[in-house]
Amino acid sequence: MIFAAIADDFTGGTDLAGMLSESGARTVLAFGGAEVPPGYDASVSCLKSRSVKPKDAVSMTLDALAGARAHAPRQFYFKYCSTFDSTPEGNIGPVCDALLRELGAESTLAIPALPVNGRTQYMGHLFVHGVPLAETSMRNHPLNPMTDSNVVRWLQRQTKRKVGLLPLRGENLPRGVEIALADVIGDDDLDILAARFADVPLLTGGSGMGTSLPKVWRDRGWMRSEETQLAAESGGAALILAGSCSSATLSQLERLGGDQVSIDAAALLEDVEKEIGRVLREARKHLRAFGHAVIRSSQTAEEREASGLDGQIVAEELEMLFGVIASTLSDEVKRLIVAGGETAGAVTAALGVEAAEVGRVIDPGVPAIRPVGDGPALTLVLKSGNFGSADFFRKALERT
């Protein structure tokens, strides 16, 4: 194996896997600490560790590292979101610390930028389509609000290791720096970093390197050029589960239009079984009438805050509901399209999906995947809340 990644959420993992696969690497996903199957160029172990306590994130990550080491990869990668989702305490810093220590590495590079989706870094500041990160909707994220666009400063709060900046097109890590945030404003910058750092034991960052690194592997003869994407069955009833309250997902749902089932958060907290029953009845009615059903969170982050409901409790109850809905309707649909990292984790766990191969890429960072082994006979699409074009859900229905 050439490359073994550990992702801190499920949609981030499928994002990276899609980039690797589209770039020619035979790639497998392993979910929730499941064993990594052999015989691939690259693997991505998808954890649900982004929003847990730092010590738990470290433990989960080191368990995944131990499993991936059995395949003797040339390089390890810690994948986190291109918007650097983390609290002031972690979990990015503590996990980087633990991986460096476990691998016996002195330093690593942090590359959160993903230019294809508008995420760039300049002078240590992250931008989303030219807007400083702390001025975007990420400032109001219900679990990991980002209130500082300076990721060098943000990461330094999470670790005792020296954090510094690798300036744009810089050649070497600054002296004494153990974790360097790399400025990136275009895909060419990622290619330069890939060529320069393909031999270091550990890299960290977003999914952009999933496109650049395979170019180096092919040039060095480590990887054969061949068709990697699966030919998947298409069509059949589809279920869209939108747990994300990001502005991107909300706009995509509005663009899709049609009848959609909204979850009433207050009703869910008052009587879980009653609300699940209502949602299931409406979803089945839509499946019969339209061939697909959309189940969505009913509120934006701002609306949830204004409601006075506990955001953490609502998020946990929504994850549980989406897991129940997915497992209950899994025999009645052929395609399952999920928006939101926490929702994707809950859904794959409820379905018992342990590993999957990558199929067709629908939008940058969002591939269709198919479970392998004893997994359900479904085509899955796991989308990060902020990813996808305006017509993403229509595309997903047309291309799966």
How would you explain this protein's 3D organization?
By secondary structure, the protein is an alpha/beta fold. The protein has 2 domains: 3-219, Rossmann fold (3-Layer(aba) Sandwich), CATH 3.40.50; 238-399, Four-carbon acid sugar kinase, nucleotide binding domain (Molybdenum Cofactor Biosythetic Enzyme, Chain A). The protein has 13 helices and 18 strands. The strands form 2 sheets. A 15-stranded mixed sheet has the order 9-10-5-11-4-1-3-2-16-17-18-15-12-14-13, sandwiched between helices. The protein has a 3-stranded antiparallel sheet with strand order 6-7-8, with no helix packed on it. Helix 1 runs parallel beside helix 6 (209-219) and helix 5 packs across helix 6 (209-219). The radius of gyration is 20 Å and the shape is globular. The mean pLDDT is 92.
CATH architecture of the largest domain: 3-Layer(aba) Sandwich
* SS field, number of helical segments: 13
Number of strand segments: 18
User: Major beta sheet, specifics?
Assistant: 15 strands, mixed
General form: globular
Fold topology:
Elements: E1 3-7, H1 10-22, E2 27-31, E3 42-46, H2 54-69, E4 75-79, H3 92-103, E5 108-111, E6 119-122, E7 125-128, E8 131-132, H4 151-156, E9 163-166, E10 179-182, H5 187-197, E11 202-205, H6 209-219, E12 238-242, H7 247-256, E13 261-263, H8 265-270, H9 272-290, E14 292-297, H10 301-307, H11 311-329, E15 335-339, H12 341-351, E16 355-363, E17 366-371, E18 379-383, H13 392-399
Parallel strand pairs: 1-3, 1-4, 2-3, 4-11, 5-10, 5-11, 9-10, 12-14, 12-15, 13-14, 15-18
Antiparallel strand pairs: 2-16, 6-7, 7-8, 16-17, 17-18
Helix pairs in contact: 1-6, 2-3, 5-6, 9-11, 11-12
